[in-house]
Design goal:
Helix content is 49%, strand content 13%. By secondary structure, it is of the alpha/beta class. It has a single domain, classed as 3-Layer(aba) Sandwich (Rossmann fold), CATH 3.40.50.2300. A four-stranded parallel β-sheet has the order 2-1-3-4. α2 packs parallel to α3. The longest helix is centred in the N-terminal third of the chain and has 21 residues. The termini are far apart.
Amino acid sequence: MLKAILVVLIVSCSACNASAEVQKPNKKILFVCTGNYYRSRFAESYFNWKAGNSALPWQAVSRGLRVETGRKGISELAHQELTIMGVPDSQTVSDPQQLTRQDLLTSDYVVILDEEEHRPMMERQFPGMALNNLHYWHIHDHPYMQAHEACSTMAVKIDSLLTKLQK
């Protein structure tokens, strides 16, 4: 009897481990803004929180087109909006990072957060690089778009994107 229970437990644990492996993120989404301090960091955190809650096998990272040297952490504006939405601080852990060609090539889905501001920067920094997985949104920087409006708009767009990615 004890031997049968032990076999059942071992099989159950193996099944749990196998299903946990399936849930590991295996696709990468990249959010890009100017400084990788406010908009893209909000998007990365919010996406990872929502994807984690729905066991979606995607992981978000974020980068900037013009990162300020020495800047650390995440914008207080983004932090405040994430806190209001109940997103834990642990969803984004790195300091701002500069976008590289490798980031673009290794991402399954790329969101450039403000087409008007960032398309010219992308064309200058990555001339001739045509990507089928590149998507431009229209989320303007502070003060052109207030933080609550920008973050709420990103949350709605990310929720819609997550629904699309689950299919």
